[in-house]
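Deliverable D5.2: sample structural annotation.
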Amino acid sequence: MARDVNVLMIAAPGNATTDNMVDADVLKALGPNGILVNVGRGAIVDEPALIAALRTNAILGAGLDVTANEPDVSPELLELENAFVLPHLAGASTHTWKVMADMVVDNLKSWFAGKGPLTPVPETSFTQGG
């Protein structure tokens, strides 16, 4: 797919199957007119390969809302003029913040009513009913 687009936008979840999914081969396929945009998870992109591709102009640029080691952004990324790095703001809006705050309150109410969280985090050991 990277060969056939000018902008490759990543909005995928981070997990073992997506770690470093965008590697040197994908960046090479994106090509010198290609732009990578990542609003998913930092681990999806092989960051050293991205830095190398940006330095050598193997791709035109990158827009990153997430980075591999956030909140600690690689100084190498920040030095590049063809990398635009944001502090993980892609989902930031008044509406989103209100929905997130309501979800926290609803989860707390459910927890203290003895029903457990409504939206458990998959990476935790909590299982419904036990």
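Annotation notes: The beta strands are 7-10, 35-38, 61-64, 83-85. The chain has four helices and four strands.
The annotation will be released with the project's public dataset once the embargo ends.
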